[in-house]
Structures are given as C-alpha cells and as structure tokens.
Amino acid sequence: MSTNTVESTPLPGEELDAAKMPGHWLLARMGKRVLRPGGIELTRLLLQGLEITPAKTVVELAPGLGATARLTMLSNPAHYIGVERDEAAAQRVARMLRGEQDRYVVGSAVATGLDAESADIVYVEAMLSMQTATEKSRIVAEAFRVLRPGGLFGIHELGLQPDTLADEIKDAIRMELSNAIHIGARPLTLSEWAEVLHAGGFDVEAPRQRTAPMHLLEPRRVVQDEGLLGAMRIAANLLRMSDARRRVLQMRRVFRRYADHLCAVALIASKPVATPTIPAAIDK
C-alpha cells in the first residue's frame, strides 16, 4: 500500500474539537507523525536493542500512526502483529502490512487475545505513561504472558528525573501535563519504570536503559523527526488554526517549564528462560 493511501486514511480523533482532543491526536492533525517522547532517534535505539531478525515474531502494542511499525518492518521480522484499540489507527496500520505474515488486532493492551508464549519481542511506546499504576501492571503482565521464555519487552515512555525527585514535584508535573494534553499523564523516574518491569517478572539490566531529552516540540527535534518539509507543514497548519496553535504552545510551555525534570526513557527487559520455583511453605 502506498504512503499516499495511508496518509489519506482518517486520523484518530478527527471528529473532536481541537480545544478538547488529546494532545497526541491534536499533534497528529497538525501533521506530526513521530509522537514518541524521545523522538525517532530513541525509537531506533530501542529497535536496535530488541534485535529484530527475520526469524522473530514481533508484537507492537498501541502502534498509533504506525511510524515505528514502518521501521520494524525494515528488519523483515517473520511476523508483525499490531494491537490497537482505536479502529481508525488500526486501519492505518493495516495498510502498512506486508502480507499474510502480518496482521493487526483491534483490542486492548491488557487483553490482546494473542496466544501465550507466541512472540519473541513485544514493545510499546508513549502509552504506558498515560496509564494508572494498576493498568501499567496489567499491560506488563500481558506482555509477559505473550512472550516466549527469553523474549524481550521494550518500552519508550515519558520519564522524570532524577530518581531522587521529590514527590510534590512529580505530582505538580503530572497535574500540569494532564491539563495541557487533556489526558492523564503519569510518567515515572527511570528506576521506577525499571521496578514496574521487574515486578512483572522481567529481568531488567542497567545497560539496557537509556534516557533522552524530552524535546518533542522543540524546532530542532521536529525537523529531525519529520524532515524539513514535514516541519514546514506543521508550522503552516499551526499558523492557520488558532485554537490548535494555542494548545500546542501551552503544551510546549509546560515541557519547557519542567525541562530539567522531564525526559524520555527506553528500557529493554527479558523474560527469564526458566521461572524459579518458589518453595512451598513449611508448617511448623
């Protein structure tokens, strides 16, 4: 399927008013296609670390507009499966699939419907950050269930820094972010993200953890992610649409206000090859 056909597919949330829609769909309406906090560079590093090969089955949770799906398919995995709860987004991903070896599922990241131990790699980007602690744990548990022993789970999410950041500052950042992007924002520090994965049964190693500046709306990052022509298209749309421009500028103000404490994080964890046996309790 051609890029033009994909681009002509309706965007998720197009029926919503610019003043009310979630920030990521507003940016998509403006022409932003890379909506990950660490940009295309951190996404590429994540995919590189996941070691996708033609022998592996890859599952992407919440592929959104499919920017990362395109990159994944360049590695020619044996199978690509996208799990997307938004029907419009799922249709966009469907148009990128290579053939019968790939498929998409309209479903939830907490209950994908995929077989247990059926994938070698599962990854998710910019979605866990918007979930409650309970939902984060449920999604991690589903990734663990779907992965084969030895499989890899990768995340690319919004982060907070440093690890010693005071709770009151964390709460203030989360509140202002949520107000700006019109959806709950619950980023964690790097060590907190690692603990979420570890609590879900994964092995998390420090060398597989990375951070990057959260420069999603900075001009240099926009050009890097979208190309010069794409960046110019976004700027033209913002000049033309005043309501959207006010929203985007509000988001950027919050990002800049907390620039010292906001970041992007990428972690890769592995499912143990053998699950340790927990000794039964001994009655005394």
Please explain how this structure is put together.
The chain is an alpha/beta fold and 284 residues long. The protein has a domain at 3-16 and 35-164 and 183-214 and 259-270: Vaccinia Virus protein VP39 (Rossmann fold, 3-Layer(aba) Sandwich). The chain has helices at 3-8, 23-29, 39-50, 67-74, 87-94, 133-146, 167-181, 190-199, 219-240, 242-257, and strands at residues 57-61, 79-84, 102-106, 119-125, 147-160, 188-189, 203-213, 262-270. α6 links the parallel β4 and β5 (147-160). α7 (167-181) packs antiparallel against α10 and α9 (219-240) packs antiparallel against α10 (242-257).
Task: List the SSEs and their pairings.
Elements: H1 3-8, H2 23-29, H3 39-50, E1 57-61, H4 67-74, E2 79-84, H5 87-94, E3 102-106, E4 119-125, H6 133-146, E5 147-160, H7 167-181, E6 188-189, H8 190-199, E7 203-213, H9 219-240, H10 242-257, E8 262-270
Structure in a nutshell:
The chain is of the alpha/beta class and 284 residues long.
Which short descriptors sum up this protein?
284 residues; alpha/beta; Rossmann fold; eight-stranded mixed β-sheet; 8 strands; globular; disordered N terminus
